[in-house]
Amino acid sequence: MSALRILVPVKRVIDYAVKPRVNKAQTGVETNVKHSMNPFDELSVEESVRIREKKSAPGGVEDICVVSAGPPKAQDVLRTAMAMGADRAIHVETREGEGDLEPLGVAKLLARVAAEQRSNLVILGKQSIDDDAHQTGQMLAGLLGWPQATQASRVAFGPGADEVRVTREVDGGVETLRAKLPMVITTDLRLNEPRYASLPNIMKAKKKPLEKKTLADFGLSPERRLKVLKVTEPPARQGGGKVEDVDGLISKLKELGAI
């Protein structure tokens, strides 16, 4: 098996424990809150590091590179990923106020990064918890012409040369897919339990290389195909009512036009 050069995209999102609030202009949510790494991306970083630690890939792991596109503060999640065990990072800096790249834009960027870094395995979260688009991994595989395995709950290697087996949960059971490198894998919550970055590793991460780039370096621009018209809170749920017996229930359902 070829030595693995793993590319792990990560995204800075509003922390999963924070309840998002719509801003006054109703153009999005308030962003002046705590941010952290997208939880699904934490799984991707952890799995990449475990593949190296457990020596589960016969050819070994040559390099683990994390990449993120976002404002200067996105460097925080890259440093966290390196503290978890990634070797180096690439920060594709975007200007404040430009907004997040759309899934297709991210996929185009990652395709060019993968080619430049000579990656043969991309492991990324199945979705980000801010827009929940669940599209980037599939688009990336399509642009690269690589096989893909989505929503992985287990990743194994062999027995054939450059062969990867991915188990994923489906309705009523599990499904195992087999493909050859290079390929794209998206991660699901049952894959692993991400580690906490220890203080010594956080200090070491400060010395690991972090390369700064721009979209222009990859021949791309922040083109937007979608326009947000309005963002509002979901309507408050109305309380239910009580009925005395089955006849009362039938009468109420008839009133509501349900039967």
Automatic annotation (TrEMBL):
Domain (Electron transfer flavoprotein alpha/beta-subunit N-terminal): residue spans on this chain: 27-222
Cross-referenced InterPro entries: ET-Flavoprotein_bsu_CS (IPR000049), ETF_a/b_N (IPR014730), ETF_b (IPR012255), ETF_beta_N (IPR033948), Rossmann-like_a/b/a_fold (IPR014729)
Subcellular location: Mitochondrion matrix
CDD domains according to UniProt: ETF_beta
This protein's UniProt keywords: Electron transport, Mitochondrion, Transport
Main location, first listed in the record: mitochondrion
Domain of life the protein comes from: Eukaryota
Database matches in Pfam families: ETF (PF01012)
Free-text remark on how the cofactor is bound: Binds 1 AMP per subunit. Binds 1 FAD per dimer.
Cofactor entry: AMP; FAD
Complex and partners: Heterodimer of an alpha and a beta subunit.
Function: The electron transfer flavoprotein serves as a specific electron acceptor for several dehydrogenases, including five acyl-CoA dehydrogenases, glutaryl-CoA and sarcosine dehydrogenase. It transfers the electrons to the main mitochondrial respiratory chain via ETF-ubiquinone oxidoreductase (ETF dehydrogenase).
Family: Belongs to the ETF beta-subunit/FixA family.
Protein name in UniProt: Probable electron transfer flavoprotein subunit beta
Organism in which the protein naturally occurs: Phialemonium thermophilum
